[in-house]
Amino acid sequence: MEKIALLSNVNVNFVSRKLKRSFEVYETEGYGNELGVLLDPGSSLKWFEPKAVFLLMDLAELLEHECRPEKGGEILDGWFDSLESAMEEKTLYFVSDGYLFSEERDVLSCALTAFQLENLYQERLQGLFERHGNVRVFPLRRLITGLGEERCFSWKTWYLGKILFSNELQDCIAQTVEKLMETEIRVPKKVLVLDLDNTLWGGLAGDYPAAELELSEDRRGLYYKNAQRVILKMKEAGVLLCIASKNNEEDVRRVFREHPHMVLSLEDFAAYRINWEPKDLNIREMAEELNLGLDSFVFWDDQPAEQALIRELIPEVEVPKFPEDPGEMCGALRKLYDDFFRKPRVTREDLEKTAAYAQNRERKKLEGSVRNFQEYLRNLKLCAERVDAAGHIDRLLQLLNKTNQFNLTTTRYDLAELEKRVRDPEQRVYLYRVEDRFGDYGLVAALMVDLHDVPAITDFVMSCRVMGKRVEYAIVSDVEEALRKEGKKELCASYLRTAKNAPVKDLFEQMGYELTAEEEGGKRYRISLQEREPREYFVTMKNDG
Amino acid sequence: MKEKIIEIITKILQVPEGTVTENTLAEDLDEWDSLAQVMIIGELEKTFQIHISMEQAMEIKGVADFLRLI
Predict the structure, then answer these.
(1) Counting Cβ atoms within 10 Å, is residue A188 exposed (0-12), middle (13-18) or buried (19+)?
(2) With an 8 Å Cβ cutoff, are B39 and A167 in contact?
(3) What residues contact residue A5 under an 8 Å CB cut-off, 6+ apart?
(4) Does the distance separating the beta carbons of B54 and A159 come in below 8 Å?
């Protein structure tokens, strides 16, 4: 039997007595000395070495009936500091949340003061919880509000023996202790596989929108909407959601996309199989995709035949009973969460897990659907436009001076030099705006040519936002074509190595330029403007000169 | 009434059914200590909407005393 200790500032010895059925329970030395017992290195509690300590605190007693928030805050600071200094790594601490109950409470001049005092306690508990991985919150407040004060507290037993909690509340506390300890020990499930029709909504996705689904803010539709809300919270608590549904995927996508009352979105699911294959195969596939064992799966489906199929063919998967009345669905889902998924603590990593799985899926999908690079580029619907450089001199300056990666020569300029260059008839400055179907990248590329002697590309820069899309091919081709029309026969180019511009070191080779010289610091090239090979790119040019 | 009272006392003491009868005294059962006594009083007050004064509570020695008071 696990060893536990119940400490309190009121008499909870009777709760300890109730728990002796299931645990080896520490025999308290009275009550109200919870800090002393914890702090004293020679106390019997230290010798007892409990796995878990439950601190069931009555807030009014803890505050010594102080009702002024400032004073109360000081008392609580002292208590929490002492508790924190007494805590040991190897022990779990279940600390009850704050609930203010006292004879004088309802005579406080402001009814909000009670909440204020409770919040002072709650904030400190939250801090303790965040700082220590071995702290848990004991939901005393939920037990009290669930039963109602009338059934929870007994003044008679309080005055007779400092027993504040009624027998009924003490029973609830004992059950909660048992449940929490079980949660602490068991291995929780990880994946909830959901059916869709008559599970996430009433009716059939295939009939929508011709026929309405039951999914709304009222009547039966609300059963399903609230069920989705419960499921979304499970996801946020770290449960991985999957779909196994017999449907046409496009019909389901339409519901997710168009139905105004959908709480869940497809992105909330770590994996899905929406097809007409048997569900056991789909579940096995998803287990493989997520790289998780089938024994971490729970299957939630309204169809008894599907439930039976999974129970029969994948006995490792848990298949809880689906309620016949959809009105009981939310309660059944909460129970399912408690029975299979609830963890002692929800960590940040849990919350980020679905996102990671979903991103992976998107990436895989892209690889699958885009057969090759060309098709990917074609789908982007890239478009480049040459604009008048003189009208955007500031942006040009910024591009030339800030670009490191896609910068062939990395010459830096000042404004005066650049203004001169833009006006010089022996120079050409080309500036480009680029966009694709996802949006406008703005002015992101510039190329400058010196026409003295043989024309030469002196500068070519492009923002890394448009790299890897062969926009550079389109730009160089555009410049070459413009020069050819001016009657130029040849074009030179160069690459000067820097610490950052390795990504473009072979750019001119790739575009069919002839290497004319290579030295330590860079390379020189040349191309004939009359006989150059066409390049493959998927950028539409709309030149306005 | 009598059955209900015995049932409540049995439940609080967590003893097998039949252990508590109308003649049972607190001193007959290890489980029936002062802590249990307080719990029994609290539970009977709640269930039967009655009031047992401190003085009366002190004098309760067994099931029969409860039966008389309620």
Answers:
(1) middle
(2) yes
(3) A25, A26, A28, A45, A48, A50, A52, A53, A54
(4) yes
- Cα–Cα distance between A326 and A224 in angstroms, integer? 8
3-state SS of chain B: helix, strand, coil percent to 5? 60, 5, 35
CB neighbours of A323 closer than 8 A, spacing ≥ 6? A329, A331, A332
Return the amino acid letter for A126: Q
Short-list A153, A163, A159, CA closest to A12: A163
Token pair listed for A432: 């480009």
Give chain B positions within 8 Å (CB) of A174: none
Distance from CA of B23 to the nearest CA of A (A): 24
pTM, to two decimals = 0.60
* Cβ atoms A535, A507 nearer than 8 A: no
d(CA A485, CA A479): 10
User: What tokens does A44 get?
Assistant: 């019997």
Find the Cα–Cα–Cα–Cα dihedral A530, A531, A534, A540, rounded to 10°. Answer: 0
Which residues pair with residue A53 across a beta bridge?
A: A5, A93
One-letter amino acid at A465 equals R
Q: How far is CA A76 from CA A6, B26, B49, in A?
A: 20, 41, 37
Amino acid in position B61: K
C-beta separation of A5 from A53 below 8 A: yes
Residue A9: count other Cβ atoms within 10 Å of its Cβ.
22
| Confidence band, pLDDT 50/70/90 cuts, at residue A545 | very low
Beta bridge partners of A3: A24
* Amino acid at residue number B59: E
Tell whether A20 lies on the interface with B, counting CB pairs under 8 A: no
What CA–CA distance (Å, rounded) separates A162 from B32?
Answer: 17
- Residue B43, chain A, CB below 8 Å: the answer is yes
Each residue's pLDDT tens digit, A22-73: 999 998 766 777 887 788 777 788 888 999 999 999 999 999 898 899 999 9
pLDDT at residue A321 is higher than 60: yes
Sign of the C-alpha dihedral, residues A369, A372, A373, A377?
Answer: negative
> Between the ranges A27-31, B21-25, B56-60, where is the mean pLDDT highest?
B21-25
Whether the CB of A160 is below 8 Å from some CB of chain B: the reply is yes
Radius of gyration, CA atoms only, chain B: 11
Cα A230 to Cα A137, A234, A257, A336, A442: the distances in Å are 21, 6, 20, 11, 44
Token digits for A401?
């001076």
Q: Which two tokens stand for residue B65?
A: 């005393």
> How far from A208 is each of A245, A257, A276, CA to CA, in Å?
15, 12, 18
CA A149 to chain centre: 38
> Contact, A251 vs A289, CB < 8 A?
no
Q: B15 — contact with chain A (CB < 8 Å)? A: no
Distance CA A157, CA A160 (A): 5
Q: Are A156 and B36 within 8 A, CB to CB?
A: no
**Cis amide bond preceding A320, omega within 30:** no
* Per-window interface: A 353-392 vs B, CB < 8 A: none
What residue type is A246 in one-letter code? K
Tell me which residue has tokens 């160069």: A494
How many Cα atoms within 13 Å fall on the side-chain side of residue A445? Answer: 28
